[in-house]
Every structure is written in structure tokens, then in C-alpha cells.
Amino acid sequence: MQAFAAVGQTGSFAGAARKLNLANSVISKRVKDLEDFLGTQLFIRTTRKVNLTDTGYSYLEYVRKILDELEEVETRIRHKMDKPVGTIRLAAPLSFGVQYLGPAIASYLEKYPSVTIKTYLSDRQVSLIDEGYDLGIKIGHLKDSSLIAKKLLDCRRVVCASPEYFKKHGKPEKPKDLKNHNCMSYLNLADGKAWPYLEDGRKKWQSVSGSFLSDSGDLLHEAALSGCGITLLPTFIVGDSIKDGKLEVVLKEYEEIDFNIYAVYQHTRHLSTKIRTLIDHLNECFKGMPI
Fold first, then answer.
1. Which listed residue, of 44, 77, 143, 172, carries a Cα 20 to 30 Å from 159's Cα?
2. Which is nearest to 135 in space by CA: 202, 50, 65, 214?
């Protein structure tokens, strides 16, 4: 497994051999033995490059988790340590990560210096299992029932705009009124074509249109502050501007409920110490934080 993982991560048998300080022939034999045992091809070999097959790519994600957990256990045994060790691959939304994760991760690493955290920030939909992440920060409704979720923070998603915009264009009183406004939409939400709302306990969608769409909530926030239009964003992005009176919230009675921030991870019989302690630390850092 170590030989296979090294080839998969370096993209070559020579690179894997250097990484593990072994001969090329040893790496090649170990990978072939693994393929024979599994009864499937893990790599497509060419004269210039080694590429993972679809099966090999899926297998690599599981192997990396197994090797990481094994490294953690072995290190704790060797050093008689109860504290977490090893690497954590953490995926989080870009805006939330930039605003909130830095201090929380720094204080965790000060407490547990034997842990390394690789943090990947992106607003796209990330698959923890398929992409090999140990832990993810998810915002809003959870679709993947195979993941375990622990709530970290309460959050709202609000319709808002600057007072200047509302003074010039008026305020929508019902979701259907949004058709008469320049709605600046988040592209990762229904491709920016519709906004969700709650009416009579049921989730519905209102079609919207506007001259400015983006996959960055921070960019939409800045545009809203400038009076460009109305936007729908979570309060961890626009909360301070609302408190300062720079943005006003409308359609409060139609807001979704339970739009929260969660730590999510793959279901496993034994949650590793490093993941458990990081979740507990994040929960403690964010406890009672207004957002």
C-alpha cells in the first residue's frame, strides 16, 4: 500500500522509489503484487507517465486514510503518547475559512504540535470521500446522509441590500417582488437563477435575475454595499454590515430555518484522535460566537 500510494502521489515509479528510499524494481514488484491480489489494474503505464485508473484513484483515497491512521497509531505507541499526531486534510468554504478558521487552527496546533493541518478552501461542492478529505466544514442543508455532522454555529441566509438601494428602488414585501429588482446571485446556488425561501413550512424557490452574478460571496457583499442590487448571503459574510447599518435585511418572515454551519466527516467505527480533538476544539472556539 505504501508503494502504491507513493506512485499515485508522485506520478512515477522513480519518484516513489526516491520517496521510500527503495529500488525502482522493488516498487514495481510491490505494485504488481497488489494489482494481482486485487485482480484489477491500478495504473495505466506509458513511457513518459503513470496515471491512475478510475479504480486506482478510488482505492488511493482509502489507502491514504488507512496509512495516515496507521502512522498515527504507530507514533503514539512508539512515543507512548495520548495526544493526536499525523496529518488532517480539511476542506472548508472560502469566505468562512478566511474569516474564522485561521485563529482556530493556530490555537489547535499550539495545543497539539504533532499534528499537521492541510486546509483547502473552495466554495465549490466538495466530496469528502471521493477527494480524500478527513474533515469538512459545510454550510446549510446536508445532502450526503453517509456523513456524520456536528453543528458548530448557528447561521442565517438573508436577503439584503444597502439603504440607498432600497430608498431608490423600494423594498420587496414578498418573494415574488424580487422579479422587479436587480438580484445579485451566488452562482453555486441554483446557478444563480433562483433563491430559496420558506412559506407555510414548505421550502419554495423564487426565480431571480440580475446584472451581477459571482461564485464569491465576498464579491457580492461588496457589490451590495455599493448599492448595486439585492443579494442573498449568509450572515457570516454580511453580519457585520447589517449590524453597522450598511445593509438592511428584508423578507425576514420567509427565511429558511436550520441554515447552520457543521463539521462533517465520514462514518467510521473509531474516529481518530486527531479528528475528534479538532472537532471539539472548533466547537469550543465557535461556542456562543455571534454570526
1. 143
2. 65
